[in-house]
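debug: dumping io for the single-chain case to check the tokenizer round-trip. Nothing else runs in this session.
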Amino acid sequence: MADAAEMDEILTAFRRFSVHGDTKASGKELNGKNWAKLCKDCKINDGKNVSGTDVDIVFSKVKQKTSRVITYEQFQMALQELAPKRFKGQSKEEALESIFKLVEGCEPSNAGVTKVAKAPALDRLTDASRYTGSHKERFDGSGRGRGREGREELVENTGYVGAYKNAGTYTQKK
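debug: decoded output
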């Protein structure tokens, strides 16, 4: 079996994956989604010997019937279930050691996460200094939005009809 330092590394990996994507997680239980992510990120799930279906079946096998999560002890049992399947040519103990090596120090990756696009076309579209017409009125000189005053025509309560050019000239003599 693995020594204490390796088991600490495995426990650390377990905790990292158990809190991934869940702000309320305590780090003591691993849900099915994060278990599948652990198997994928640590390369336990190789697509040939161990598939996503195998990972889900092992999770269902080791968890309690009414529970949706597994504890650290159940996590170790799940790794013991998957080890001979992942490393077919090795003995059970060697396979377990090999699967522990895969999990050691592994942490959740964020591959494929959407990043901010940087393209010249996007820069042209979002350059407020090049806007014309009514869109130009929505932004100030620095390109910041003006808020409500840029979106709506504010009503003047002067008593004159909107867009009347000679406001205030009624009482003036010619």
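debug: round-trip ok. Residues 63 and 133 are 63 Å apart (CA to CA).
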